[in-house]
Design the sequence.
């Protein structure tokens, strides 16, 4: 139970209770999605406070915490009653997601000494449980189904925005709760911008089209990128595509529990550098994915920590030639003791539409 893992944190931490206020932490703790609420957790009590709009649904969905409607009182007043019952001296607040003003307001309102929770919950979220992996895979399958269909729509004259809209529609149609982020669809010279925004530019013959997209199932995100060609490819485009794919495969081969994110990045980067495109790969190899689209661990040059078994990271090298074209290919990897499992099933040979 998530509640018990959170409680295990309390045993090791210098605080006796925690108050979770961010949407992601509340959902992680309760499994319930709401736009308002707070979780109070101590050794004695686990309570999810929310308001009238969510109380009935929360009571039906949450079984290992008490659900209470805050009614006409404030969250801080409701939580203070529990702090007093439990004799809590130090309470941890989510300093990473609260604004400075909100942190200060909470800290002065609560009848215990406020402490920073820092990244304790994010660290707990790094290793995915089976049900979490299942939700990420379900989201990925929906994205792949959408990709498979959208390829029929990629034609000369269709705009980037139309393709982005179609991807969004298809993912929702196949059961996504939402998008992980606004889909990126960039073509031709626009494809050299790693996070370019889809425009009204029509697709032209000879364009590479890079699509980076993902969706959410039960709170969990997927993330994938594919680059396809329209009409024909030049030898240089094929060389760049093959280099990116080989770099990705080298990173995947290096990825296993205990290896640092930095080392995985370096394995992929070496392939791109050897091919002479080192300066054209300006971002990291990958990032963790889960309830948030970007979360720990880091699989890039700043990733000094070893990747733990059970974490999920993306594998997304790219080469971007400004004013000309770009290529990125992205899968999601589930890190295990002796390697990793590629959770992405969409084909990676360069598809010419
Ligand atoms: Zn992506
Ligand atoms: Zn990504």
Sequence:
């Amino acid at each position: 139970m998530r509640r018990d893992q959170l409680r295990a944190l309390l045993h090791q931490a210098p605080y006796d209770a925690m108050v979770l206020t961010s949407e992601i932490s509340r959902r992680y703790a309760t499994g319930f999605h709401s736009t308002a609420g707070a979780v109070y957790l101590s050794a004695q009590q686990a309570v999810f406070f929310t308001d009238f709009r969510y109380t009935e649904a929360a009571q039906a969905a949450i079984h290992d915490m008490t659900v209470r409607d805050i009614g006409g009182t404030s969250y801080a007043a409701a939580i203070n009653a529990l702090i007093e019952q439990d004799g809590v001296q130090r309470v941890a607040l989510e300093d990473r997601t609260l604004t400075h003003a909100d942190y200060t307001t909470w800290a002065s309102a609560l009848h215990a000494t406020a402490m920073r929770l820092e990244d304790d919950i994010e660290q707990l979220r790094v290793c995915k449980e089976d049900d979490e992996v299942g939700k990420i895979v379900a989201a990925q399958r929906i994205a792949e189904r959408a990709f498979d269909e959208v390829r029929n729509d990629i034609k000369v004259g269709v705009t980037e925005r139309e393709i982005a809209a179609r991807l969004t529609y298809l993912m929702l149609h196949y059961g996504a709760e939402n998008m992980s982020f606004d889909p990126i669809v960039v073509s031709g010279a626009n494809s050299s911008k790693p996070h370019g925004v889809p425009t009204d530019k029509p697709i032209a013959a000879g364009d590479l089209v890079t699509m980076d997209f993902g969706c959410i199932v039960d709170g969990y995100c997927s993330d994938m990128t594919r680059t396809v060609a329209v009409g024909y490819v030049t030898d240089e485009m094929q060389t760049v595509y093959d280099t990116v794919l080989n770099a990705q495969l080298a990173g995947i081969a290096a990825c296993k529990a205990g290896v640092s994110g930095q080392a995985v990045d370096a394995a992929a980067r070496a392939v791109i550098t050897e091919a002479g495109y080192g300066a054209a790969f300006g971002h990291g190899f990958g990032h963790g994915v889960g309830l948030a689209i970007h979360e720990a661990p880091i699989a890039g040059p700043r990733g000094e920590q070893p990747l733990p078994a059970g974490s999920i990271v993306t594998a997304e090298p790219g080469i971007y030639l400004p004013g000309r074209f770009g290529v990125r290919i992205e899968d999601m990897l589930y890190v295990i003791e002796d390697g990793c499992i590629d959770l992405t099933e969409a084909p990676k040979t360069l598809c010419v539409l």
